[in-house]
TrEMBL record:
Binds 1 [2Fe-2S] cluster per subunit. The Rieske protein is a high potential 2Fe-2S protein. GO terms for cellular component: mitochondrial inner membrane. Its main location: membrane. Belongs to the Rieske iron-sulfur protein family. Its EC number is 7.1.1.8. It is found in: Membrane; Mitochondrion inner membrane. This is Cytochrome b-c1 complex subunit Rieske, mitochondrial. The lineage of its organism: Eukaryota, Metazoa, Ecdysozoa, Arthropoda, Hexapoda. It comes from the Eukaryota. Its cofactor is [2Fe-2S] cluster. GO terms for molecular function: 2 iron, 2 sulfur cluster binding; metal ion binding; quinol-cytochrome-c reductase activity.
Length: 67
């Protein structure tokens, strides 16, 4: 996981909605072993960063904290 996108390397917290048109990506899939959006073919890596496809942005990391 990318240290810039995770607070705790044991967990990845992202909003599971493709940034292209709002479909739900499939986990542990795609060309980069992260997330694959079956609607239009966007591929995200295991940190939720867009790597291929029409999605314009990485998967969103919402505000969160670990207690």
């Amino acid at each position: 996981h990318d240290d810039q996108r995770v607070q705790n390397p044991n967990w990845l917290v992202v909003i599971g909605v493709c940034t292209h048109l709002g479909c739900v990506p499939i986990a542990n899939a795609g060309d980069f072993g992260g997330y694959y959006c079956p609607c239009h073919g966007s591929h995200y890596d295991s940190s939720g960063r867009i790597r291929k496809g029409p999605a314009p942005f990485n998967l969103e990391v919402p505000p969160h904290s670990f207690v």
